[in-house]
Amino acid sequence: MPTALILGASSDIGLAIARKFAQEGYDIQLGTRDPAAISSTQSDLSIRFNIRCSLHQFDADRTASHEFFFTQLNPSPEITVYCIGYMSQGKEMEDSWEETEKIISANYTGAVSILNIVSRKYASQKKGTIVGISSVAGERGRQSNFIYGSAKAGFSTYLSGLRNWLYPFGVHVITVKPGFVYTKMTENLDLPSLLTASPEEVGRAVYSASLKKKNTVYVKAIWRWIMLIIKFVPEPVFKKLKL
Amino acid sequence: MKKRITNWGNYPEIESNLLSFRDESKLRSIVSNEDSFIPRGNGRSYGDASLAPTTILTLHFDKILAFDKEEGIMECESGITLDQILKVIVPQGWFLPVSPGTKFITLGGAAASNIHGKNHHAEGGFSKHIVDMEVLLESGQQVRCSPVPNPDLFEATCGGMGLTGMITRLKFRLKKIETSYITQKQIKAENLAEILELFDKYHDYTYSVAWIDCMKKGKNFGRSILILGEHARVEELDAGQQKEPLLIPGKKPVVFPFNLPSFVLNKFTIRAFNFVYYAKNLKKEINNIVHYEPFFYPLDTILHWNRGYGKKGLVQYQFVVPLHRKDGLIEILNRISEKGMGSFLAVLKKFGNHQSLISFPIEGYTLALDFPVRKGVFEFLDELDQLVLQYEGRIYLTKDARMKADVFWKTYPHADRFQEIVKQYNPGFRFRSLLSDRLLITK
Ligand SMILES: Cc1cc2nc3c(=O)[nH]c(=O)nc-3n(C[C@H](O)[C@H](O)[C@H](O)COP(=O)(O)OP(=O)(O)OC[C@H]3O[C@@H](n4cnc5c(N)ncnc54)[C@H](O)[C@@H]3O)c2cc1C
Ligand SMILES: NC(=O)c1ccc[n+]([C@@H]2O[C@H](COP(=O)([O-])OP(=O)(O)OC[C@H]3O[C@@H](n4cnc5c(N)ncnc54)[C@H](OP(=O)(O)O)[C@@H]3O)[C@@H](O)[C@H]2O)c1
Whose CA is nearest to atom 24 of ligand 2? Predict the structure, then answer.
């Protein structure tokens, strides 16, 4: 049985991805800051899908622990999904530096730290798949969330470079841009239903992208066009918009 | 987030602050921070049972905690739906102890309404199959209850419509099956007297229910089809079916995309529907083997068929009268057919002698049918209530959206005791719904 490692397993998107891979017969390793809090997810996955599921403590901020974290995984996972992310609740420019660093760490530096380790291993064994959950917010900075957006932009750029670097080794990298998703992160927002995916849709999209070796996935296709338009607005105009 | 919501009948509608939780600590913080609320599962009750200005949604609290495949005992968080449970247990040779007419309800909803199925006469309601459950009270305290420790909390939670607290975890017994098929027998009955006789004659069948034509008058008054079933054994299947006796279908249901205007459901279409229905069953008796899906959940293949009743919605009227008040059943059915306001679908079932503190079923006959909301319906249903009262019957709360409080208090003999227990565990009446306020249980 192949194994999938899901980092950020306490998120709705992480859970949905884990359920989809488990349904397809993968054993699952769940990485999260507080494993005890998701022990019910462990029983759920193993009972529902008749697979093996284990819990592992993982904190994106504690980069010094990442090497040990990954090497002790047994078996070593064939696929690694990074769906950790962090968005602050208030206005970003009013946040403390500590809060700002949390955003950068969860969405970018923590990701680079662990995925570098994973990539070296996958390159050496000449197989493996890496999935990064990034965001359309990284495609153009907007006043409402440009710290988060710039961290995601960094992450997307990292993933595209990584894909290029790993290509000769036969290792595949997928960048996922979910658009809006109904999750606890967005629970208090009134999201437009045509533009919003369910976590289950994200799970299915990730699984199918891994089969088809897609590079960049927009879960709802319409987002590709929306972002295209947003990127076309000239900067002198864009800077005056309230977005 | 605030949103306008309704239950299955699309009536009534309320703006509600919807709050979700994924773990018990979040639930506890909601319960301590909000003034009042009601648990909400999948909104498959018809009326106002899970409606309130603040609703706590359980659908994300949906993990399977344990499954003993030898003993057939399962423990889950309360927001999991029966649909999801079936996918796990059927391939392992187990089945739900009680199935309602749709699989899209939550385990919490099954307990809170103490649902009944086609096997009520033989195997009782859902609560009979609960080993134990945990309820989070208004105080934030979490209490385990079962027929042995805390029997009062258990009794008032089964069928208690969410008024004692939030059921968080539930452990229940499953039923062993050899196949996912049902050996089905359908028998045509010319009239009401005949169908009631057939119920007695086939009492030994595990599953029995009848579709009844409520429009027909005269000598065919109450003509119906009795549907009987048993879980099929492997040797009863044909060679193809035997290859995978515990098959579960993977097909996706079709979604009814929009609200049809109510006039589509006038008397004419009701008659037409009945005609088609009968044409399919011209022989007196049909015996066949069917998958459990169409047997138990015939309407689930059309998700949101309720939208066929139009924007104004529907109310479902389900009552039961005791065995010795067959005359009541006849009179009420008579009134319904004279009035011609009811739906093309009416379900008739004989309940067994399994009663509990506040649950709906009593030994007797239950009839359920839909009424599109339109002029005169509420007045008419009030008249029917008086007959139900006169014939010692009662109305099913989980289907109700309009009964007057006095009818509830007169027809549920243990309502006082129920309210006492609710007061003990929910002293501030912070668990409350439109239904509980309307029926003066929490007022
Ligand atoms: C097509 C159809 C067929 C049906 N057939 C049958 C049938 O054959 N037999 C039958 O008995 N019923 C039947 N029903 C009714 C249905 O089974 C019940 O209304 C059931 O309670 C709905 O569950 P739900 O998860 O949708 O809960 P909701 O409708 O959201 O809530 C129902 C009640 O349960 C309470 N509740 C929900 N979750 C919890 C919890 N975790 N803790 C405490 N309280 C909770 C709510 O407060 C509310 O009072 C049918 C309904 C439909 C739409
Ligand atoms: N929801 C959307 O509309 C949307 C849109 C585009 C992209 N995304 C992305 O999708 C991913 C999942 O998001 P979600 O919506 O499901 O949000 P979420 O519920 O807030 O999930 C965030 C996840 O990240 C984890 N996390 C945060 N900081 C961490 C850290 N320092 N170390 C380890 N884990 C950490 C959280 O774990 P804890 O439980 O330990 O906090 C949680 O599992 C994120 O990358 C998000 O940016 C979401």
Answer: A84
